[in-house]
Amino acid sequence: LAQQPADYPLLTRLTDGDHVEIDLTILAPLVAAKSQKLAQAGAGLVVVMCTGGFPEVVCDTPVLLPGKVLPAVVGALSRTRRVGVVTPVRSQASAALEKWKSDGFEPVVTWAAPHVHGEMTRAAREMADPEVEVVVLDCMGHDETYRTEFALLCGRPTVLAQSLVARVAGEWV
Predict the structure, then answer these.
(1) Does the structure show a pLDDT above 80 at 3?
(2) Whole-number average pLDDT of the chain
């Protein structure tokens, strides 16, 4: 799947710990099919563990799409809608820019893989712009330790997709 060209590449961690990029259009139908299988097995909620711009998933149970939850919450809190968005890979930056624009924001986009510290330092410097109201770590791979360090480095409020989505899911179940 990773060998095919990607207009909207999503960073995917394999079971052996390696990372590959797979296009959203390839993953979306696989996620929809797996969501329905989970619903049939009795799941009360399915959470897609990716912040990409997945389309709505037709399923017998609710499907939480972080790519929709994140902009909704950030939009509710943001006064200026000027946000920093940190994607996990450079090749995703243009797709993220378009997605966040279509969500009604004026985004500044950069990238920093969750597992590459040097990228975090560079990205945090880029997000230190006082015009950026809030920074969104737009990848489920960024964790709380990463968010804390990133926020200290850039000096901006920083929203972590992983914990925000977990809190929303926790309200449902």
Answers:
(1) no
(2) 93
* Start-to-end CA span in the chain (Å): 33
DSSP state of 54: P
Encode 23-33: b = buried (16+ Cβ within 10 Å), e = exposed: bbeebbeebbe
Best CA proximity match to 27, nearest among 45, 47, 6: 6
SS3 of residue 81 by DSSP: coil
Q: Which of 21-25, 78-82, 132-136, 140-144 has the lowest mean pLDDT?
A: 21-25
Tell me how far apart the alpha carbons of residues 152 and 150 are, in angstroms, rounded to a whole number.
5
Task: Quickly tell me which residue has 């990029």 as its tokens.
Answer: 21
Residues 6 or more apart whose CB falls under 8 angstroms from that of 88 comprise 11, 111, 112, 113, 114, 138, 139, 141, 142
Q: How many residues can be counted in the chain?
A: 173
- What's the one-letter identity of residue 147? R
**Torsion angle, alpha carbons of 89, 109, 29, 114, to 10:** 40
Which of these, 115, 31, 132, 125, lies nearest to 78 by C-alpha position? 132
CA atoms within 13 A on the CB side of 146: 26
pLDDT at 163 > cutoff 80: yes
| 55 pLDDT above the threshold of 80 | yes
